[in-house]
Amino acid sequence: MMVVGGACWLACALAVGLLLLQYLGEGAGLQAFGFFGLTASTTSVGLGLVHVVGLFAAACLCFVIGVGLCALGLVPAPEVPRATTVIQPGRVSFIRWLAVSRPWRQSRPSDLRCVRCSVSLAQIVHICPECGWTQPYNHVA
């Protein structure tokens, strides 16, 4: 769709360019006030210059838009990596350490319990030996 739109804009630029060439070939505004008997006045030259500059600007604008649309249609978009939520490991580890170690209280190994079956654990383990449930305990020094 982008390439077709770009081709239409390029065709429009070509049509405006051909109109500009025809306008320049016929005198570019000198004939605008010819019926008043003025063939080469400053007004007619100024009007011709404004027309030429306007048609040239229109042709350039159509060309730029056409090339841009064709380029967007032909060149594949770069793949952008999906944004993933990154959890800061230092902060999560500190929160886990704070929850597990309870620094305000003397921690004893007998206080450790499984989060699922509440079996007393002798030491910090990652998997409960009774039920096989993964424990949230982090390594505490």
What does this structure look like?
The chain has three helices and no strands. The protein is mainly α and 141 residues long. 7% of the residues are buried. It is rod-shaped, with a radius of gyration of 39 Å. Helices cover 50% and strands 0% of the residues.
Write a brief caption for the model.
By secondary structure, the protein is mainly alpha-helical. 50% of the residues lie in helices and 0% in strands.
Query: Which residues form runs of ≥5 with pLDDT under 50?
Result: none
- Shape, per Cα inertia axes: rod-shaped
Assign a percent range to the helix content.
40-55%
User: What is the end-to-end distance?
Assistant: 63 Å
Q: Write down the domain tally.
A: 2
Structural class: mainly alpha
Radius of gyration: 39 Å
The proportion of residues in beta strands is under 5%
Tally of strands: 0
Largest sheet: none
Individual helix count: 3
Order of helices and strands: HHH
Rounded average pLDDT: 76
